TrEMBL record:
Keywords (A to Z) from UniProt: Cell membrane, Membrane, Protein transport, Translocation, Transmembrane, Transmembrane helix, Transport
Subunit note: Component of the Sec protein translocase complex. Heterotrimer consisting of SecY, SecE and SecG subunits. The heterotrimers can form oligomers, although 1 heterotrimer is thought to be able to translocate proteins. Interacts with the ribosome. Interacts with SecDF, and other proteins may be involved. Interacts with SecA.
Family per similarity comment: Belongs to the SecE/SEC61-gamma family.
Keyword hit for Translocase: no
A Pfam family matched in the record: SecE
GO MF annotations, alphabetized: protein transmembrane transporter activity
Localization (cell): Membrane
GO biological process assignments: intracellular protein transmembrane transport; protein secretion; protein targeting; protein transport by the Sec complex
High-level lineage: Bacteria, Pseudomonadati, Pseudomonadota, Betaproteobacteria, Burkholderiales
Protein name, per record: Protein translocase subunit SecE
Gene: secE
Record's GO cellular component terms: plasma membrane
TM segment ranges: 18-35, 42-62, 92-109
Keyword presence, Cytoplasm: no
Record Gene3D superfamilies: Preprotein translocase secy subunit (1.20.5.1030)
Amino acid sequence: MATSDIDTVSTSADKAKLAATGLLVVGGVAAFYLLGKQDLWLRVLVLLVLLAGAVGVFLTSIQGKELVAFGQDSVKELKKVVWPTRPEATQMTLYVFAFVVIMALFLWLTDKALEWVIYDLVLGWKH
């Protein structure tokens, strides 16, 4: 039987950090609505501060550190990509447009041929 790779929270400290993250997010949204009679800038400020705290707590957990490492690896891989030059991109775009036009014509002709065969020859309906 194959074992599956499932990320689980293994330490109680990480469980506490993830719980605190969730509470900060919920608390930020709740505070935004509970402060409904206050000025909008104050409500938004409280929401942003609590969300920033949630992000900060999350980034100190194992999952947060893995997310940061994944992002760094993604940036490294993105730097390895060889992007096409402008003339290459233009040429490929023109090829795609030409293919689309040819396929549209082919499908239109096929549709009209089948319409003619079915309605005129088989059923005998004249338009």
